[in-house]
Amino acid sequence: MTNLLTIADLGSDGIAEVLALAEATDLGAPLAGKGVALVFEKPSARTRNSTEMAVVQLGGHPVYIQKDEVGIDTRETAEDVARTLACYHDVITARVMDHGHLNRMAGSVSIPVVNLLSDKEHPLQALADILTMKQLAGALKGLKIAYVGDADNNVARSLAEACVRVGAELSLASPEGYQLSDAPDGVRQTTDPAEAVKGARFVYTDVWVSMGQDAEAATRNAALAPYQVNEALMAKADDAWFFHCLPARRGEEVTHAVMESPKSAIWRQAGNRMHAARGALAWVVR
Fold it and tell me: Considering the entire predicted model, what is its pTM?
């Protein structure tokens, strides 16, 4: 039994295994006749659809569970929620507000727990990202990647952890106060977006105002305005592909023209969310 709560749970070998499983066409049905719980404290289009379809492709039965149906630490403790779900399912996947809930759930059951997103990490997004990069670039080792904007978040953290483990070179460009506070060794941080994207094959950004940050919108938008990914910034990169985990706010962190350019890989990224989820689920039940 293996949990997947962070990229560190995979390690370099695990990432390679998941990527191989994600692209395999002969996985069989390792979840045949088995239930997979999908607990969602936060709504999502891509995560729900990609994970449900990944479960189906592996022969399993996904059950979508909304936050009010379980009420983690309000209706029932995280531990009791996990124990209840383990009575019916062979895997628990969860998209939660607090990463600590995942740790407590995983510590309470003997079935795998998979992180669909927490305030700390978004491992399945990072796996889809590097899968897409591998498909477009052919190899990950030595690949130059730039992340521009608010880097102190779950997407940037998981991407950084993944890049270190696959040998890619990641530069994070953020203003003071928005840098990744616990960046792993080997990840470079700068306040200059032009410096970060120079020579990059991939330029990545995310929304400046995430769920739960609406009260800070004006402050965040003002601080991050110089970090918009636009045509001028993309021109400073090495004929780079544009990445975004979506949903995007066109005209804020990225321009419409960049989103719709021939070098935009956002829909391939989105499609690979399903393949990465399939690989990750096959890995935890292998």
Answer: 0.97
pLDDT digits (tens, 9 = 90+) for 118-137: 999 999 999 999 999 999 99
Residue of 184, 187, 150 lying closest to 171 (CA atoms)? 187
CA dihedral 225, 227, 228, 230 (to 10 degrees): 140
Expressed as residue numbers, the domain containing 114 is: 7-122+273-284
* 58, 22 contact by CB (below 8 A): no
Burial environment of residue 43 by CB neighbours within 10 A (0 to 12, 13 to 18, 19 or more): exposed
Number of domains in the chain: 2
Q: Are residues 72 and 184 in the same domain?
A: no
State the CATH number of the domain containing residue 162.
Answer: 3.40.50.1370
Structure tokens at 126: 């990072």
| 216 and 110 fall within a common domain | no
Q: What is the mean pLDDT of residues 173-179?
A: 97
pLDDT band with cut points at 50, 70 and 90 for residue 269: very high
Tokens encoding 14: 């695990």
> What distances in angstroms separate CA 165 from CA 51, 130, 184, 200, 278, one per listed residue?
24, 11, 10, 18, 21
Summarize pLDDT for 67-76 with one digit per residue, the tens.
Answer: 999 999 999 9
* Cβ within 8 Å of residue 34, ≥6 positions away: 59, 60, 61, 89, 90, 91
Q: Is residue 1 part of a domain?
A: no
Shared domain check, 130 and 112: no
Query: Which positions are catalytic?
Result: 95, 122, 125, 206, 245, 273
